[in-house]
Amino acid sequence: MRTIDFTPLYRSAVGFDRLAGLLETAARTSQEGGWPPYNIETTGENAYRIEIAVAGFKPDELNIEVKENLLTVTGRKTANDDAGAERTYLHRGLAERDFERRFQLADYVVVTEAGLDNGLLSISLKRELPEALKPRRIEIATGGSATLIEGKAA
């Protein structure tokens, strides 16, 4: 498998280090195993949902954490002790191993809710722009209104 060297980007671009980091993370993530499987869908203009197949996991065995635009979902399976009874499997195809899935979130994307139903962990996300970043209309003064430039009348 071929790796990509982002060193030239660091040498010639200023302020794009976060983008290079995202590309490196994406390259690393694509090389990981594909378990557990997941879907990412858009549910509205600024709304998204991640569904992760976590069959056999209980809610207390799952953890969802967001830190610095990185959503991390982990599953830690507790020991299967059926009151001391030993189980004999003829075939064991259900994966009961621990996992960790990471998703890089864009700026201002927040987790709004999470739920577990029929073995699917569903995480809803929404992009919430701060008021300062939302487009706003600027009124244009006409006629006798004085225009202020740097606190002084023009």
Automatic annotation (TrEMBL):
This is Heat shock protein Hsp20. The keyword Lyase does not apply. Gene3D superfamilies: 2.60.40.790. It comes from the Bacteria. Belongs to the small heat shock protein (HSP20) family. InterPro entries: A-crystallin/Hsp20_dom, ACD_IbpA/B, HSP20-like_chaperone. Keywords: Stress response.
